[in-house]
């Protein structure tokens, strides 16, 4: 997991407006559209990780265990269920069960120089792609 401890900043995106319209999506995707966020993953222990998302001057973060579903409250008070898994050494998959019953998938594929995040939503053909550059 060579991406651990590295900071990645959004450089550009594709189809995010279309995804937001199709999904009536939540705050996180809209933040990716409006700002150039920086993300960083660190390891807490063998299966526990921390994600730090910096948008403008705000830091939002949470700790997660691979393969374990956890509940998170959104700004509007609704709750989502999230599960993270690792594919190989360089792909982090985040599945979010939304209050409306749909499931969103965030697939982050890391290299030494960048990260490509593909976002898809059950019931929609639209996929959004966000590219991040390594700024460590």
Note down, in words, how this protein is organized.
The chain has a 10-stranded antiparallel sheet with strand order 4-3-2-1-10-9-8-7-6-5. The two termini are 15 Å apart. 12% of the residues lie in helices and 56% in strands. It has helices at residues 16-23, 27-34; strands spanning 7-14, 38-45, 48-55, 58-65, 70-73, 79-87, 91-97, 103-110, 114-121, 127-134. It has 136 residues and is mostly beta strands.
Main sheet record: 10 strands, antiparallel
List the helices and strands in order: EHHEEEEEEEEE
- What proportion strand? over 45%
Could you give the order of strands across the largest sheet? 4-3-2-1-10-9-8-7-6-5
Stretches with pLDDT under 50, minimum 5 residues: none
Described by the principal axes of the CA atoms, the overall outline is globular
**Could you report the average pLDDT, rounded to the nearest whole number?**
86
How widely separated are the two ends? 15 Å
Number of helices: 2
Rg value: 14 Å
Percentage of residues in helical conformation: 10-25%
Class by alpha and beta content: mainly beta
Tell me the total number of β-strands: 10
């Amino acid at each position: 997991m060579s991406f651990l401890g590295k900071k990645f900043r959004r450089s550009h995106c594709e189809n995010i407006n279309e995804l937001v319209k199709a999904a009536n999506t939540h705050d996180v995707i809209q933040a990716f559209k409006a700002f150039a966020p920086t993300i960083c993953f660190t390891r807490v222990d063998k299966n526990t990780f921390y994600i730090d998302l910096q948008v403008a001057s705000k830091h939002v973060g949470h700790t997660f265990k691979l393969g374990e579903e956890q509940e998170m409250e959104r700004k509007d008070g609704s709750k989502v269920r999230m599960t993270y898994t690792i594919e190989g050494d360089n792909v982090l998959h985040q599945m979010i069960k939304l209050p409306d019953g749909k499931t969103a998938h965030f697939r982050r594929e890391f290299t030494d120089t960048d990260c490509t995040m593909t976002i898809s939503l059950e019931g929609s053909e639209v996929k959004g792609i966000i590219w991040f550059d390594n700024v460590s």
